[in-house]
Design goal:
The protein is an alpha/beta fold. Helix content is 54%, strand content 6%. It contains 17 helices and five strands. A five-stranded parallel sheet has the order 2-3-1-4-5. 41% of the residues are buried.
């Protein structure tokens, strides 16, 4: 079925992941010739290149009037519209489009904020230095490098710097650590996040957790001595990682909170970050994250590495060198040329990281 729309949209996505932006655009234009109102294809087309005229903007403005009964379709169209208006520096129009897209997307998602609040409070209460020092030692494999933080804070940039090193493989954004906790703790609550999850996690055998994570991530780790797991929300599990994998390295991205939140607000994610489509919900979530990281820093600050997104983008070499030094790897100049890497990038930064830091 060479004209299958879902196939062609997925093919365009994969071209983008591999940095083949011209190929992606060609496929998307084929999709829109076959199906001119496909919202997903319009959104991808907006992201594959920088808008220089209002031609597609006007088409998107017409389409949102026809798509008013389909919130998922509206979200694709409004986020594409916002991105192109931002390219054209039509700031107020862009913000209105992002806000409309976020409101549409929010209607399709459940976000249980009370359960998240209870879980963060339980994590802060349970995972102390005393807890870390109790019980048996974890699994001593030194290969994992966790890159954590909020989305849109430079986690992909830093992951690409690290994985440009010849000794490090990019395993992508793995859910294996959290899933291993759930499996070993026999967590069966109806909500994904809860205070009960924290209580059960605190009782998991550290060595079993470390070994379960390494076993379940094996097929993603490549053949190099080290690998990066770049799932941003793993910041929640910093104490558990330290106990289960005491020789692993943890790199935490910091970014100005307003910049981080706005960057998330104008990003249409797949099925992650349900808090990011309402400014008040997102602000409260970011505050919870910010205070939890402050708690981890107070208790375990000598066991993980904070790196500033702003400083790294502004002056990449000294920050990259400090990062590689923390990871106990020999310096390689390729780490400054991350944008030349041919490996796939499947995050929201797939297009950005094909360019040098700026």
């Amino acid at each position: 079925e060479p004209n299958s729309i879902p196939f062609l949209v997925n093919q365009a996505n994969n071209h983008m992941f591999l940095g083949r932006l011209d190929d992606a655009e060609e496929v998307l234009r084929k999709v829109l010739k076959l199906h001119p109102v496909n919202p997903n294809a319009h959104w991808l087309l907006s992201n594959v290149r920088k808008a220089t005229t209002r031609d597609h903007v006007e088409e998107l403005q017409d389409l949102v009037q026809r798509e008013d009964q389909n919130p998922r379709g509206l979200a694709f169209l409004y986020y594409g519209l916002g991105k192109e208006l931002e390219d054209l520096e039509a700031w107020d129009e862009a913000f209105d489009a992002f806000a409309a897209g976020a409101a549409a997307r929010r209607t399709t998602l459940d976000f249980d904020e009370p359960s998240e609040i209870a879980m963060y409070e339980a994590f802060s209460e349970l995972f102390t230095l005393d807890w870390l020092e109790q019980g048996d030692a974890g699994h001593d494999d030194p290969s994992p490098i966790f890159v954590v933080g909020q989305p849109r804070t430079g986690t992909t940039l830093v992951e690409r710097i690290i994985t440009s090193h010849s000794q490090v493989h990019s395993a992508g954004e793995l859910k294996q650590f959290g899933n291993s906790i759930r499996r070993l703790s026999n967590y069966r609550e109806p909500t994904r996040y809860s205070a009960r999850f924290a209580e059960l996690a605190a009782e998991v055998d550290a060595e079993k957790l470390g070994k379960a994570y390494m076993a379940s991530s094996r097929k993603y780790r490549g053949d190099t001595p080290r690998f990066v797991d770049k799932l941003p929300p793993n910041y929640l599990y910093v104490p558990l990682i330290l106990k289960a994998l005491p020789k692993a390295k943890i790199v935490h991205l910091t970014r100005n909170p307003m910049d981080a939140c706005f960057s998330s607000f104008k990003q249409l994610f797949a099925d992650a970050y349900p808090h990011s489509y309402n400014q008040e919900e997102m602000a409260r979530h970011h505050a919870r994250y910010y205070h939890l990281m402050a708690t981890w820093r107070e208790r375990f600050g000598d066991r993980f590495f904070d790196i500033s997104y702003e400083n790294t983008a502004r002056d990449i070499e000294p920050n990259a060198r400090a990062l590689i030094d923390y990871l106990e790897l020999p310096w390689e100049d390729a780490c400054l040329e991350f944008h030349k890497s041919k490996g796939a990038v499947t995050t929201a930064s797939a297009v950005q990281v094909r360019k040098p830091a700026h």
